Amino acid sequence: MPRMFGTDGVRGVANTEALSPELAYKLGRAAATLAAEKEGRRPVAVIGRDTRRSGPMLAAALAAGICSAGGDVIDLGVVTTPAVAFVTTYQKASFGVMISASHNPAPDNGIKFFSGDGFKLPDAAEDELEAKVAENPDTMPRPTGAHLGTIRSDESLVEAYIQHVASTGRSLKGLKVVVDCGHGAAYKLSPEILTRLGAEVVAINTSPDGLNINDHCGSTHPEALQKMVVVHQADVGIAHDGDSDRCIAVDERGELVDGDQIMAICAIAAKQRGELAKDTLVTTVMSNMGLDLLMRKHGIALVKARVGDRYVLEEMQKGGFNLGGEQSGHVIFGDYSTTGDGILTAVQLLSILASGSRALSELAGQMQRLPQHLENVRVTKKEGWDTNPAIADAIAAVEARLGDQGRVLVRPSGTEPLIRVMLEGPSLEGIRAMAQQIKEVILAELT
């Protein structure tokens, strides 16, 4: 049986076997039972969701499972993933749950758990929860009467999150910002927070209908935002994904500013303020080498984590670092949040812009992206690729040719029969040819 939990919770097409209301009920019941066993008290769970049509259905089923095990539910309605993490800790709840499939299309959905301290569950805790779901339901408590759980909503808790995020920034008066909410969870929160801080906000894609989330909008489709920034002569554009744990920016010329560049800007500013813990930034192996070169110039060390924001956070916690993230726009400000927060990231970036006289294009331009090329090599087997002498020799030969002017990253896909070959170097034409050389050897050895 495949593992129920993927790299970011349980995901699938909503109302199919992969993510049915029955499964949501079982997950809620199992999570509340485990929490009661560990805490020795009546568990409390915080639930939030994005704007997908399947969200209320799954939230209702999840809440029913929690209540049937004697747990109480605080239903936040449509909020962002980081808002759920914040309220979970703010309320000292037993756990939090976000119902979202992030940047995926509307038919998909997901169930993502947070522990009482606001962090995503580690693999071991997810395995424990999965095992509890598989147990005979008759072995779990089934309280009645006054021992049943309750469900309540509390708008003041969302307000507490808004105030928290706003408190981390400075006045944004004088900045004109276009915000693409992607018809997702941030459609109210992001414009509200930026407006409170004094920015002139033009909000787009703020009319969710349950089906239009991420539909040619948001952080994975920023084309409309790029045009709107130019049309409105704005200083900056901000784009969020469906659950707003990401932030991608657009400069005043309509050019994209990705997560690597946002991290670079924030890391340099934090170091100048003396607030970058151990003068270190945590990134993933997929970050552009241009980030490495810029950080080296500013005396900032880089720690490279596996792909995935949860692995970035693990490295941050292990090393005592307070800033990390991914090229995709997941940025974690450890002093303020336990997870990636797209609105918080926007506040931090805009605060840097508001505090100086340099345009975003100038700040982002400090980092020169090296040309990057990716080959997805379809194979009949992935096993043994990393111990294959011929493949190792091909990689080593390319690395020798690139020297310190580029790099090679070869890794298997976690979900498909693919070996991914990514090269960076001074010339796109050159790295394409070198990637093709490695690809040919992989095909000869693994197909």
Give a description of the structure.
The chain is built from 14 helices and 18 strands. The mean pLDDT is 95. It is globular and about 70 Å long. The protein has helices at residues 21-39, 55-68, 81-90, 123-134, 155-167, 189-196, 223-231, 259-272, 289-297, 309-319, 342-354, 360-364, 389-402, 428-446, and strands spanning 10-13, 44-49, 72-78, 95-99, 108-115, 151-153, 176-180, 200-204, 236-239, 248-250, 256-257, 280-284, 301-305, 323-325, 331-333, 372-378, 407-412, 418-424. The strands form five sheets. A six-stranded mixed β-sheet has the order 1-5-4-2-3-6, with helices on both faces. Helix 2 links the parallel strand 2 (44-49) and strand 3. Helix 1 (21-39) crosses helix 4 (123-134), helix 8 packs across helix 11 (342-354) and helix 13 (389-402) packs antiparallel against helix 14 (428-446). By secondary structure, it is α/β, with parallel strands linked by helices. 38% of the residues lie in helices and 20% in strands. The chain folds into three domains: 10-155, Alpha-D-Glucose-1,6-Bisphosphate, Chain A, domain 3 (3-Layer(aba) Sandwich); 168-364, 3-Layer(aba) Sandwich (Alpha-D-Glucose-1,6-Bisphosphate, Chain A, domain 3); 372-446, TATA-Binding Protein, CATH 3.30.310.50.
